[in-house]
Amino acid sequence: MNARMNLRPTLFASIAVASSLMLSACATAPSSGYASAPSPAYGDPCPDCGTVTRIDEGAGSRTPNATGAVVGAVIGGLAAREIAKDNTDSKGRQNTATVAGAAAGAAVGNAVQNRYGKGYDVTVRMRDGREVIVSQDDLNGITVGSRVQVRNGRAFRI
Fold first, then answer.
1. Buried-most residue among 18, 30, 68, 74 (CB within 10 A)?
2. Bigger pLDDT: 156 or 86?
3. Coil, helix or strand for 54?
4. Containing domain of residue 106, as a range?
């Protein structure tokens, strides 16, 4: 019974660390929302500017798909190993429990990432008439009708 009491803080700490890693993997760097002023030398002062015509929830530019599965596998494997170590002396059973825990953790981690890792497909009508769709994780105040500049595959409000 005493071994199980010592496992709980370790298990909770592992889950807290994994949760932090998964949430930080979804975070993006904040943007000021202001674009640098382009040179008005040749006609259109902002050839990369346009108006947002549509915003759809989509895949976005999320972190690689394996992130949730990897973090889940590590946590699941460690937790299963600790539980098996307390309940059996057999190395074979501990290894089996580790593999099973890693597989279950990977499945759960992947499901969590797929559920919470959504982004946005932003459709922009450019000044020259062409239509551009960019995928990004956040909108930073962009709504339908916003004037934006498209740089590096992202839309920035101007």
1. 68
2. 156
3. strand
4. 1-30+63-116
Same domain, 73 and 110: yes
- How far from 64 is each of 36, 60, 116, CA to CA, in Å? 30, 11, 13
How far, CA to CA in Å, does 102 sit from each of 69, 110, 111?
9, 12, 14
Which SS3 state, helix, strand or coil, does residue 154 take? Answer: strand
Strand partners, 156: 149
- Summarize pLDDT for 6-31 with one digit per residue, the tens: 555 555 556 655 555 555 554 444 44
Region of 15 on the Ramachandran plot (φ > 0 left; ψ -120 to 50 alpha; else beta): alpha
pLDDT score of 89? 79
Record the tokens describing residue 113, joined without a space.
């990432």
Q: Are 56 and 9 within one domain? A: no
Q: How confident is the model at residue 51 (pLDDT cuts 50, 70, 90)?
A: very high
Q: How many domains does the chain have?
A: 2
Clarify whether residues 151 and 106 are in a common domain.
no
Are 109 and 71 within 8 A, CB to CB?
A: yes
| End-to-end Cα distance, the chain | 62
